[in-house]
Amino acid sequence: MVSCTYLLTLLAATAAIASPVRLSNQNGTVKIRQSGQVYVCKAGANNDGVTYGEVSQDCAIGYFREAGTKAGFSGYPKKFDNKGNVMKFASGCNENVYELPVFSNGKRYDFNAKKGSINKPGPMRVYYTKDLKFCGVGAKEHIGGTGNPHNCVLENQGVPSQGWLLVRKRGISIVLSFTGRLNWIAYVGCLSV
Q1: Signal peptide position in this chain (predicted)?
Q2: Quick one: 80 and 171 in the same domain?
Q3: Interval 130-157: pLDDT, tens
Q4: Is the pLDDT of residue 125 over 90?
Q5: Within this chain, do residues 64 and 92 fall inside the same structural domain, yes or no?
Q6: What are 23-46's pLDDT values in tens digits?
Q7: Are residues 101 and 68 part of one domain?
Q8: 92 shares its domain with 181
Q9: Total domains present in the chain
């Protein structure tokens, strides 16, 4: 049986030289959950106009997981056909993509209320698959929410500013939370499973 001390030492050495990626092998699994990533959405075909706002990836994921794929009274979420491939998505996000309005103020779009003067969808959207996999955040070209959508720009790239790390090895799980450039601040737990 592997001790928690051994795994913590191994983890600390690995964290000092490794960039955050998902790894898995036959001996264990390492998962890194990035949080704090923010998309900046602007008007214009190239996301270069007036700023609409910023959208937290974590909030957007929470919104679409709550909404699912069945349209509410507003008509959202709805299938997104990406005519002309105007939105650039990672692999796995090419078919059965849905869109849901998002706001920069943390307020949820009420997809179960009728769309109208009080329940306006605005120009920003989160895109995701039928399996609820995040694909991206985009914005409509014009302030009124019309025109072709375009990708919003990811502001916080690279090493995550905060998050948690889960390491599983031979029946033992270790969870660490961190802030900054791999500046570990909390050892959450070591569990034998």
Answers
A1: 1-18
A2: no
A3: 999 999 999 999 988 899 999 999 986 5
A4: yes
A5: yes
A6: 344 444 444 445 679 999 999 999
A7: yes
A8: no
A9: 2
pLDDT-above-90 percentage for the chain: 50
d(CA 132, CA 61): 8
DSSP state letters, 24-65: E-SSEEEEEEEE--EEEEESTTTT-SSEEEEEEHHHHHHHHH
**Helix, coil or strand: residue 175:** strand
Report the CATH number at residue 55.
3.10.450.30
Q: Measured between alpha carbons, how far is residue 16 from residues 4, 28, 53, 149 in Å?
A: 18, 19, 35, 40
Same domain, 111 and 183: no
Tokens of 133: 């996999």
Same domain, residue pair 81 and 172: no
Q: Evaluate if residue 89 carries a pLDDT over 80.
A: yes
Domain that holds residue 30: 4-34+158-192
Are 12 and 70 part of one and the same domain? Answer: no
Give one DSSP letter per residue of 133-168, joined into a string: -EEEEEEESSTTS-S-EEEPEESS-SS-SEEEEEEE
- Cα separations in angstroms, 76 against 105, 144, 148: 19, 17, 17
Q: If we measure between CA atoms, which residue out of 138, 134, 135, 133 comes closest to residue 153? A: 138
83, 166: one domain = no
**Six-digit token string for 176:** 């660490």
